[in-house]
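chain below, 164 aa
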Amino acid sequence: KGVEVSYQQTFDFLPGFLSGLGTQMTYTYVDAGDFNNSNLGAEQSPFAGGLPLAGVSKHTVNAVVFFEKGPISARAAYNWRSDFLQTPRDVIFPFSPIYGESTGQLDGAIFFSVTENLKLGVQGVNLLDEVTQTSQVIDFSGTRVTRSSFRNDRRFTFLARFDF
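prediction:
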């Protein structure tokens, strides 16, 4: 069970150039409740009892600012999720549940319409150079320690879009 609250608005009441601004915001809360990983297989971790359902974050936030006016189209999106169970049993260090720690990422894009059939633009991913971390459970009390960190670097893609 859970709830999702969403808001979207274009600010077309603003004067001139600013009338192309808009926003989209979403908050999601998920309570997986009685769903857990305790009975999913013979090779299950002894720590698995009471672990949450894998892959489900309790909290997720998405915030977008966009601009659409004339030949310009731009968008910046920040996505964040709270920690979540990745797997109830690690394959490298057997029997340790692995969690993905809370993380967020900012992406963006800007396009310019050269003609009715041609758009040029650039997209950026992970603009804040966010590091993703995982942790593992090391005892029956649920103590978690850092397991790994991943830096996916900022990435930019230059694009040409053709309509024909």
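The mean pLDDT is 88. The radius of gyration is 21 Å.
thats it, cya
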